[in-house]
Design goal:
- The protein is low in regular secondary structure and 294 residues long.
- The protein has helices at 2-28, 31-35, 55-58, 71-75.
- Among the domains are: 165-208, no CATH class; 211-256, no CATH class; 259-294, no CATH class.
- It is built from 4 helices and no strands.
- 2% of the residues are buried.
């Protein structure tokens, strides 16, 4: 029993002695001693607010080696360092705080769009930051397809981002629209034009809203030639939009007499064995075929 007490007392004495030595050593390292330490030699320069905080703020539990030199090592969510963290409502960005902030203050930050990891509209929604105004053309929310990060204007234009019809912009007010001499058409510009330029233009007859003769008058576009049979101006009753020929004949559009076509030159006429008759073919024949006769 006496031996056990002696051992316990001896152990306590050693613990006390170790603590005393530790305290003495700590007292030796006064603030003046720490002041002589050049932190720049570690490769991490202390400036701004970093130069005014206590060592233990970053060096937890007296551990110096391995302390992170990156912003997120201290200011990232989930670290053990008791210092200001990146708030949960911070804009979506990388962890490089110094891309936007200085070491003097979080406030007065400059904006480096290269550090942004979210889409444009996560900030440019009209609340957190300037968004599309009410007069903005109808488009999706990928701002960077037309705008640059240094300023909204000047802006380039990418038609692939437009969500509205052509005429919502190309109405002669917001942007160039159909001129006074444009042929009568619907407002589906893309039926004939490309986004790279108005000309050259293709032609899609499905967009035409007027009669054929409004264009096919021999001036604006090819019209009936001098040898054309006498007909009305409803071209589409005989012709197709893909080409003038081949053409079908709709006798309902013919305004001349039968013999003006059926003369043996332009179209089949009376044969040599035809009974002697006048040239009013429709007195005996139908427009669908020569036989049977009426």
């Amino acid at each position: 029993m006496g031996s056990l007490i002696a051992k316990t007392t001896n152990r306590q004495n050693k613990t006390f002695l170790f603590s005393l030595i530790t305290i003495c050593l700590l007292l030796l390292f006064t603030e003046d001693s720490f002041a002589e330490f050049d932190h720049d030699q570690t490769g991490y320069l202390l400036s701004g607010n970093h130069s005014r905080i206590r060592c233990e703020t970053c060096h937890r539990h007296g551990i110096f080696k391995g302390t992170s030199k990156k912003c997120e090592g201290c200011h990232g969510q989930g670290t053990l360092i008791a210092i200001t963290k990146k708030p949960v409502n911070h804009i979506e960005s990388s962890e490089q705080c110094d891309d936007c902030h200085t070491e003097v203050s979080w406030l007065g930050a400059r904006m480096d769009h290269l550090s942004i990891t979210g889409s444009c509209v996560t900030c440019h929604d009209g609340i957190r930051s300037t968004g599309k105004n009410p007069n903005h053309i109808q488009s999706h929310n990928r701002c960077d397809e037309c705008h640059r990060t240094i300023a909204w204007i000047p802006a380039r234009f990418d038609h692939s981002g437009i969500t509205a019809s052509c005429v919502s912009c190309h109405n002669g007010t917001i942007s160039t629209g159909k001129n006074a001499n444009h042929l009568p058409t619907s407002d589906l510009c893309e039926d004939c034009h490309r986004t790279s330029g108005w000309i050259p233009a293709g032609f899609d007859h499905t967009g035409i809203t007027s009669a054929c003769i409004n264009c096919h008058d021999g001036s604006r576009a090819a019209g009936k030639n001098a040898g054309h049979i006498q007909t009305s101006n409803i071209c589409e009753n005989c012709h197709r939009t893909s080409g003038w020929i081949p053409a079908s004949v709709d006798h309902g559009e013919v305004i001349g007499t039968c013999v003006s076509c059926h003369n043996g030159t332009i179209a089949v006429g009376k044969g040599q064995n035809h009974v002697p008759s006048a040239d009013t073919c429709d007195d005996c024949h139908s427009t669908t075929r020569w036989t049977p006769v009426l």
